[in-house]
Amino acid sequence: MQKKRIASMTAAAVMALSSAAAVIPASADTAVASVAAYEVVEASTATIKFNPNGGTIMGAKKKTYKKGKTLGVLPTAKKANVVFDGWYTKKTGGTKVSYKTKLAKCKNRTFYAHWKALDQPRLKWNWSNSFDGFDYPSNYHSPRSVYRYIFDKKYADLLYEAFGGDYGSWGGNCFGMSSTASFNALGLTNLKTFNKKATYTKDIKLKDKSATLKLTAGQFCEVAQQIQYNWGIQEMYTNHENKYQAIANAAKRTHKKTAKPIIIGVLDRVNGGGHALLAYKFVKGDKYSDKVYVYDCNYPDSKKQYIELKKNSSGAYTGFRYADFYDSYTDITYFPTATAYNVWKNRGTKKAAGLTDEQRKEWGLDSAANATIYDAQGNVYATITNGVVEGGDVVKYTVLADKWLGKQQDRMIISLPAGNYTIKSNDGSALKVFEYFNGATKSAEGSVLSF
Length: 451
Prior knowledge:
Helices cover 18% and strands 28% of the residues. By secondary structure, it is of the alpha+beta class. It has a six-stranded antiparallel β-sheet with strand order 12-11-10-9-8-13. Strands 3-1-7-5-6 form a five-stranded mixed β-sheet, with no helix packed on it. Strands 18-19-14-21-22 form a five-stranded antiparallel β-sheet, with helices on one face. The protein has nine helices and 23 strands. It has four domains: 1-41, no CATH class; 45-117, Listeria-Bacteroides repeat domain (Immunoglobulin-like, Sandwich), CATH 2.60.40; 122-345, no CATH class; 350-450, no CATH class.
């Protein structure tokens, strides 16, 4: 029998070849080869790639990772009708990573985007109430600069004269909070939760932040509140009013994730004012009613807020009810949240107003005015009786803000097709009118005014 040969390489020699722990092979014939095969020096940098997993990456598609460091800033991703849920080590399952993750081994690898369905918890805000959650004094007025942040200077001045200054007290941030919550649901912003300690927009991770966008979280919502003055949104308010079946259909599409969320406005036409809500789920009820569940910024933690759509014996919708602390809503309307985001994208320009030079002109005047509007041929175009406008292609602007003190407002805005008009006071009293058209503004005061 052949004798076994004694390995000529000692353990000390093995350790000299590699600082890593090594197992001495049973056969000395393979000792040198085995040690050489396991002699690996870990790299100091590696390449991390990001796979959008069916979506689109918003930012760099890869980055360099340094051994022993955290991952640092990671890109975001978006995909229609779902919410980005972060980066994971596997396409399905795996471990979630974040900016503070340290990798056990520094090697090239790929992280995969994961997605979540749209749902109410993603819309959560941490303030208790859109009206008093920002600690506004009762006589607060949005400054002119807030209007100018969204709209061009002259249109902003028209709004300020109509709704700012000494004319109407602050009514709340419900539209601002609902619209920005909807931006989050669409993946347009990344507000997993809204940190009440946030100082600047960089702290709440707005995707389209800029160096000049230095707003506190409350200021951001206040700016977003003005988005509703866009003419296209106001036209939708009017055209969609009390369209119960359309609201149900839109809520169903959102629930099934085949369409984007809608903002619902509940209005009080008797006392003035309204409230903005974000629909996210439709639930079929009994033969008398169905339910549209909504995010209400006054109840951010509640999953029990819903609008009841009432039905008759044939199954047709006949009315609605939304119960909260202010339960006297008379009308309901809606519009797509993407419309609001388009205004935000065009902020600071004439385009944000939603008007074209050939299409519309806007007037701000006394909310309790009694007057007649004549067209260029002298025909009666519309009448205004105690602030109620009838006739013609006229849109009267509605403000959505919970607790809005509509009766204390002294101004309203009406939108008219482009053209020349004369407005005449019905009782001979002086009218004060502000006009915006073609990027220019002018004002006049008298019992008979021509524009």
